[in-house]
Structures are given as structure tokens and as C-alpha cells.
């Protein structure tokens, strides 16, 4: 993940990477990974897109303990030419885009404390590796992530990072995908969260709306709680081709004249899979 303005911590390279220092993880830290992994691995089959499970398998992620990035990168490199590199936390947007554009995924090297199993604001190694890396073993999704990084480099020049960030948010982090039996999860923010893996798919509260690139880039999002709307893609091929075939510069220009869309809004033009009651979000406002 990226953030606009940050100061590079001491000890990081120019590209903000650090050694993962795998041998420094404690037994308790490995046990935290195992606990989180077991909980998600039990719940996700049948809920997550099959490409995610295939990725876990190809990358041998089910082995106990926090993965060693060197070994993980070897497998990922053989599958799709991607690598995983360690960073101390959030990195600036342009650094993040540069890594993605060069098929490097940045991952926090720390893991949450045992009392933070359910929620953590800053992405840790479980979110970054378990949530994001399995789909990087899928050739189409791997190309989409690189295309996003290249799009980010262009958006930075056009002053449109905030627009493009919404595309990342509603696909890479919180996306749903159609399947033969309904909807499936694929967003890393969902699949790395036990509670949101259930909420995003089963709860009557959020909207589930067909993905539309321009619509998504107009839609604000929540960073502190479950999403009020999830966007559903048809498949990864379609997401990739829409991203590659869109000339973003005129889109950014056109969007500048259009209003923002609230996170809970449903438009007359939306393809609505499920119109949310928003009961959950309302219960939070009333509390
Ligand atoms: Fe993430």
C-alpha cells in the first residue's frame, strides 16, 4: 500500500526495501501467522475465487510459519515473473507504483501482535502475503497489477492518483468476482480479514454492484470499517482488458467535472446484484 507523503526510514534502500530478516521472526510471530492462516484456510474454500486457492498451492503457502520472501519469490518468479520485497510499512505512491510496474510486490515484514488478529490499520505480512500474493501467481491478475503500477506512474504526472487509487481499492483490495454459483471474493483486504470475508459475501448490509471503471473512480470509500459497496467484476481477463484499453487521461479530465459518489449510493445506471440495507453502517452511526 502507498501513501502520499512519507519520510524514508533510516536503514531502508533508495527504493524503500529492507531485508526481510526471516531468521529474526520469533516462534510467537510464526504462530500468529499459523493461527491467521488456519482460520482463513478453513473458511475461504467455496467463498474465494478458485485462482486464489491455486495460488496458495503453487506458492506452497500452506506450509507453517511466515513465508521466507526469497523462497516465495523463486516460486512466484517461475509462475509469473513477480517477486516479493520487504518494506518497513507504507511507502510513498511513486515508490509503490515503480515496484508494481517492475513486477515487484512490496510487503510489510512485520506481523501483527496476537491481540490484533482481527484488525490492523497498517498492512502487515499476513495481509500483504496471504491477501495479495496468491493472485500474483495468476498470469492475468499478475499483468493487471503491473498495468496498475504503470497507470499509477501516469496518474502521478496527471495529478490523478486519488482517482486511480479508488480502482485499486475497489478491485485489488475489496473486489468481488462473478462465478457460476454466485459471487466470490478476491480482494486482499477481504480475504485477509475473517470478519469481512463473511460480511462482503453474506451480509445484507452492503451493496454489491457490477464493476464499472468510471463509476468506481468517482466513488469514495471507507478506510476504517467494512465497505458499504463492493464492486463485482466478470473475470480477471475483463478487468485487465478494461484497464489496458482505457485511455485514462481524458477519463480523468471528464471525471473532474462530475460529482463524487457516496460509498453507499446506488445509481439508476448500476447493475445491482444486491441492494444493501446499509443496516450495519447505520448501526455504527447511531451508536
Ligand atoms: Fe493491501
From TrEMBL:
Cofactor requirement: Fe(2+)
SUPFAM superfamilies membership: Aromatic aminoacid monoxygenases, catalytic and oligomerization domains
Keyword annotations: Iron, Metal-binding, Monooxygenase, Oxidoreductase, Phenylalanine catabolism
Pfam families given in the database record: Biopterin_H
Any single biological process term in GO: L-phenylalanine catabolic process
Statement: the UniProt record of this protein carries the keyword Lyase: no
InterPro entries in UniProt: ArAA_hydroxylase, ArAA_hydroxylase_Fe/CU_BS, ArAA_hydroxylase_sf, Aro-AA_hydroxylase_C_sf, Aromatic-AA_hydroxylase_C, Phe-4-hydroxylase_mono
Protein residues bound to Fe cation: 127, 132, 173
Source organism, top-level taxon: Bacteria
Domain Biopterin-dependent aromatic amino acid hydroxylase family profile positions: 1-287
Name of the protein: Phenylalanine-4-hydroxylase
Native organism: Sphingomonas jeddahensis
Name of the gene this protein is made from: phhA
